[in-house]
Amino acid sequence: MARILNNKRVLATVLTVVFVCITFATGALAVFGRDDFAIGKSSADDSSASVGISSSNASRIAGEPAQNLIDEIPEPVDRTSMVFDRPDEMRAVFASAGNDFLLGSSPTEQSIKADIDKMLDKMTSLMLNTVIIDTKYKDTSIYHTDYMPKASPDFDILEYFLTKAKEKNIYTYIFVDALDVPEGNKIVTRKTADAQVLDFLANNVKQLTQKYDFTGILIDTYYNPYTESSYADYIKNGGSIGFENYMKQMPHAIVSTISRASMASNPKIQVGIISDSVWENKSANAQGSNTSASFTTLSGGNADVKAFIEEGLADFVMVKAYGSLSDKAVPFTNVVNWWAAVANSKNIPLYVVHSSDKAATGASGYGSPDQLTKQIIEARKISGYKGSVFNSYTKFIADPGQSTTAVVKLFRNEINTDFILKELQLTNPTKTQFTTFEPKTTFMGASDPNFDATMNGKPISRDGSGYFSIEAELKPGINEFSFVHKGKTITYKITRQTQILKEIAPVGSVTVEGGMKIKITANAYDGSTVTATLNGISVKLSPAETDNDSTDRDSNYKTYVGTYTAPKATSSVQQLGNIVVKATWQGMSESKTGAAVSVNKLGATGPLVQVTAEQAVTYPIDSLGRYPDGDNYPLPQGTLDYIVGDAIVYKEGNEEYTYYKLQSNMRVATSDVSRVEGSLGGNTISGMSVENDGQYTKIILNTQQKVSFTPSYSSSAFTINFHNTTSVPSSMSLSKTPLFDSANWSGSELTLKLAKSNGFIGYKAYYDSSDNLVFRFNNPPSSVAGA
User: Fold this and answer.
1) Which of 180, 241, 454, 692 is 20 to 30 A from residue 221's alpha carbon, by CA?
2) Per-residue confidence (pLDDT) for residue 726, from 0 to 100
3) Which pTM was predicted?
């Protein structure tokens, strides 16, 4: 007892606490001894197998007593300046014997080799450069040391694994499960550790690190959580150092023993610690992370992993960051940031373990298959992060929802990280439930091109950026469309009502002049045959060649247009009846009744009217519609003209439009003019002058009466025909304007010859304060004028 108490190195390295000394006082240190163990071999088959602690086998490492080995473990040294063989960015998987290799109920040496070869080939194809091997197979070990029962006595599985991995330039790490110890011919997991367990760990780790050429070891299962038997174990082991001290010092003794034994035995092998997500929540410890984990290593596992790292017991730390990016309790980014700061304080790498077994599942935050990829993208932004580990090889290669495909693309730099942030979005239709008369609908949206997107289970064709546009047929009744992408589903329910002919124009009542053309329009299904009938005459309507501002380009309805010419006027009003439009589509027909049409009788010149609007829009008299054409120019306020015949009425929808036909053969809205007293005729234009201010050219006419006029335009000239005019001024050459060369009169028609072909770019007519008629033309830009 005195010898052990005086050995401070033993206490510091292995025990670290007084309770271990008490344990040593009750019995000598011993090493777990046993014979080789084969797959399927029971204890009854191995007469030499020992059960429990065998004092006769307490010294089996290089012929030295176990206690002497413990004495040789040095104090920790600063290894941060050492250069280790590490990947620039670790891309690793956990490999579990029995799950990922060593498969089947009765594996043979040949099948085991095949499993390992296949696994390593697959890892290479997936851009993985590291494997972390769980060495436990059922209740045996895949490596050969003097202590652990062997899964295959005649075939060293770990040696084969390491050799083949090295051939493929794959780094290798092995788990050291601190509480797994031999008991007879099998491995058992202890609830806690005592001096004999620590002694075994030191000896076994020494033999492992001296015999095998792997990159590093990973210390696991070192927690000492509170259980129903914790206090009883404390009393059993002495019960004199305080219960809380006992609980927290046990993990330190385990980690310290394994770490120092490995570092002393083979300094080139890296020692790592694997930890759960949270050391401690900030709410419980000011140095903790912004998390609210239900389990923490410090309080729940009594393991001060942060202190272990700061003490220099680890060359790297590996953290199980299993919370998703959106996890409220243990958000991925918060966890990685905190551990990175701890790792950076000792200048050691941080490796992040991702929960690949949750990918594309219902686990919180993992519904979208891009979760793993997003985690890596976020981790790469954090200083200290040196790589990723996926916690299940089998789940990783299964590629659920193409989650692995995206990760591999990221490793190959084949992924645009902007796309990975995209979620499924549909911009059209804007509502997911609606009723329509359309026979088709167009779905437009965006997605992440790195993952499949489907509509009703079938892949969607998209461009390289993930955008798509799909035209879908709608059957009468309810149509359901379900879009699925990265775990997100958007469902449309569209009810289609059949309506071949949607609307027609004109409707209501229309009064026209004899010979006037009536424009008839109809909105009908694309591909319909459309006709209009009036007064016994049928007119075929054809699809409009051009769209206007009111055209719905996403609609499956098309605008059909036709023209009906009214009969010549007679001495009495002619009632032609109603326009009837019929549309036929895929064997189905539908009709609508439009406007009642009447033709004005031959009319004498009516009353005089004057333009009251600032600019009165003019319309053609040979066709009826509410829009002017390109040959119609407005009349300025004050213009006088006579009405011919009765008002022309045009109704479209609920709107009614009325017009007057003017003696000058143009049509104006009745609201733009008013009746006045007086007469027109024999007008004299007594003078003409020209002004140019650089921006405008003004042709100023001194006119006796404010008669109407009809402009026209060609590529070489702008012509104005003045009505009710008998006297005009002389022609003149124009040199002060860049727009016109001359102003020539021929009867009551003024022709302004353009200086440059097609040089006309607009004008406005108005009466100035002296009642002169002014035509203000826009001058061409100086660069054009001088060209």
Assistant:
1) 241
2) 94
3) 0.59
